[in-house]
Structures are given as C-alpha cells and as structure tokens.
Amino acid sequence: MSDPHLPADTYRVHREPYYQPQGNEVALFEAAYRKRLPVMVKGPTGCGKSRFVEYMAWKLGKPLITVACNEDMTASDLVGRYLLDANGTRWIDGPLTTAARMGAICYLHKFTNLWHFFGEGGVPCRFNMSGTGSGGFTG
User: Fold this and answer.
1) What would the pLDDT profile of 108-122 be if each residue is shown by its tens digit?
2) Which of 18, 94, 19, 30 is nearest to 62 (CA)?
3) pTM of the full predicted structure?
C-alpha cells in the first residue's frame, strides 16, 4: 500500500532518466495525458517500457507510483481498503487512490497479469514498443 501521508515529492523523479525516443511516442503520450486518457505501453521484456514511463513522469513534472502487479492482486490491493486497528476501522489508500489524490502517474507494471478483473477493453490508448518499426498509439 502507498502511504498517502508522504508528500508528492517523495514519488517525484528528480533527475532526468536517460531515454532515447524511437519515434513520436513522447508527443503522443503528452497528447493522451492532456486528454486524461489512460495509456497501455506494450512490448517485449527489456524494450524500455518502464524507462519510458519514468521519463514521461519526469518530463511532465508528475510524481510516479509504480505497482508490481501479479495475478493474485485484487481491486482492493489497488484502490484501498478498510482495516481494523486499536482505534477502530480506518481507510488505507491503495496506490491508485494515492496517485489520484496527488495527481501522480500510476504505472501498473506487468498489467497483463490483471486481465481477470480489468479486461483489455478498458484501455483506449495502447502503445506498442515492440521494436519492429510498427510502434505507435492505437485506439
């Protein structure tokens, strides 16, 4: 779980990560960001998906919360949940809620492990970083 009491600066990318654009992916991501559209970045292992998202968080000046997804995750793991403690019941934000509250980018790493409750139809913009020359957003 993310700590909602940590300042947004804790999650900020402070130094420019090295990223070499391969095409117009930076402009396309910025356009999707301006329209508040979620983006799915697809590609084989090691092609630069995580570095690209980190670079875009730095470029946009937004905090970045990265979640390592797995097939055992539930919606509560991402959104948050009520927990019992010595003082009663309290809400604990999950990483998606924390990101929304601070205006951060939330990167769901290995998102494909979560198809069981999101489904592929919920992401209007996909970005293919396959390295085959066919990279770009699709809708």
Assistant:
1) 888 765 655 555 555
2) 30
3) 0.77
